[in-house]
Fold this protein.
Amino acid sequence: MNTQRIWVTGAGGLIGSWLVKTAPKEAGDVIGLTRAQLDLAEVAAVRDAFERERPSLILHCAALSRSPACEADPALARKLNVEVTARLAALASDIPLVFFSTDLVFDGRSGNYDELAEVNPLSVYAKTKVEAERVVLANPKHTVIRTSLNCGVSPTGDRGFDEQLCQAWRSDKVLRLFTDEFRCPIPAEVTARGVWELAILRATGLFHLAGSERLSRWQIGQLIAARCPELNPKLEPASVTEYPGPPRPGDTSLNCAKIQKLLSFRLPGLSEWVPK
């Protein structure tokens, strides 16, 4: 990978921070960009920074990723998730760009989705990701990574799903977790390792990168609770049919066979990561 300067957007988030922390020596000069350092919504500022620094690879993690915020302001979600991505993709037309998407692009009716499966997003957040995916994949030099729930330590202490559960338990909340909503959770450190290996291989196109275990929210909660008994975690089983908000996909588990063939390591399941 003959890179001299790499941008990692969303470096203040979970995956972005791990990409910066775990960058291989051969990557070159890895620049983690937070919103305070460069507001990606500022068109001129981004263009000027790109022309000045001339990155040779962009790992684009920044997004409005909290679903309630996207539902509350669809225009802002589209601006940050689609328009920002489209401008970065245009600037990076001659260099590799890696865009992070989500398993939520699927409606969850079948599960075990591979890269050829048809998307059918149910939420505003997922719809913006599908639109941005199409923009990115229009360039054969670019890559889309669909991932699932990521866990681990984030700079703000509230980005990993495990951190969010622990925060709730510290506040003595009882969490009602769905027994019929399935994901493939993965440590963000593993996600970062997989992305760096793809970048070194110069692999492009669409890839699914998630954990090897299909787990319900309830099962995930039980695993995290076992990791932190000192918080006296309280959780109750619930059904996604009880959820009063927008429709939620039941099973967005990802088939990661395509990327697994390229990686030097086996993608782990969440139970291999917790309790630790």
The domain at 5-151+185-213+254-268 is CATH 3.40.50.720 (Rossmann fold).
